[in-house]
């Protein structure tokens, strides 16, 4: 059986599982895209509505898509009722904060601000030296704002110089900040698998555990994820640029429409790779089950060390917890040892089989001579 490569995009194992259920996966993607499209489409009324529709409808739909695909490839089957149940499960205590949306939003906002400053300042100094009309347009804006305030803000978009400045200052930062947001949400989708395997632990503790694992072994958790999913980032970027350009040519004087068009096309193109992302993440977690348990034990030991400094629990309780964790650690080591012995035994049997086949072939050849 072919081994799963954690660094390879479009790996054969994930692809073979997708080929088993093409119709069902397409239907799940269609439903997700429909909900995401409606969520983003509401932003055409006012882009500020996206701050509500994306976390309250689009992300739960993404969660439902992820869990539904994992259920499907495990052979458990899926239904509309089950998918809707997964949508609601996103708000349950077990999966509360699994995508770490608030933290991811503020990180993305910081990326947006940084790129906005870089692009706006760069564009300003280039345009003011290249285009004679750009400075005149800025003077007109200053005069307009001084006389009418923000009541005549729509007139700013009638000026091509300022319109182009606005599109560059908005489009490029939005591309990188939304891509960063998408990357972090998909990376945190690994957290969903971990929460499914670890029960009776608070969501905040599980988030801390996930962060601890990523920090402890970035090569295993972070960079392998990036290497597996770089085509998804590429698809997202292509879709974003096409959507933004389409809006720019169709509605040049309505730059806020570009936000919704760009985000929808980005998600649409990303959908071509999302099944690979979720299936490969599931395979990754299964292949590293022992490592994750080890990290969980290490994290628990560190947490107990910190609790020792407080008076919340007695020394007897903490020592008993230490003892239990050490027993679990020993059982994991024994299980891993047995697994390695079984593997060595299997390799030895396969090697002997190959030697026997080779010997039989040589014997048959000598008889023919």
Short description:
The chain has helices at residues 12-20, 22-41, 50-73, 80-89, 101-130, 132-148, 160-197, 203-216, 218-250, 255-270, 274-287, 289-308, 315-368. By secondary structure, it is mostly helical.
Please give the largest β-sheet. Answer: none
How many helices? The count is: 13
Chain-averaged pLDDT: 81
Helix content: over 70%
The computed structural class is mainly alpha
Radius of gyration: 27 Å
Principal-axes shape call:
globular
* Beta content: under 5%
Poorly predicted tracts of residues: none
Distance between the termini: 37 Å
The ordered H/E elements are: HHHHHHHHHHHHH
> Count of DSSP E strands?
0
Helices, strands, pairings?
Layout: H1 12-20, H2 22-41, H3 50-73, H4 80-89, H5 101-130, H6 132-148, H7 160-197, H8 203-216, H9 218-250, H10 255-270, H11 274-287, H12 289-308, H13 315-368
Helix pairs in contact: 1-11, 2-3, 2-10, 3-4, 3-11, 5-6, 5-7, 7-8, 7-9, 7-10, 7-11, 8-9, 9-10, 9-11, 12-13
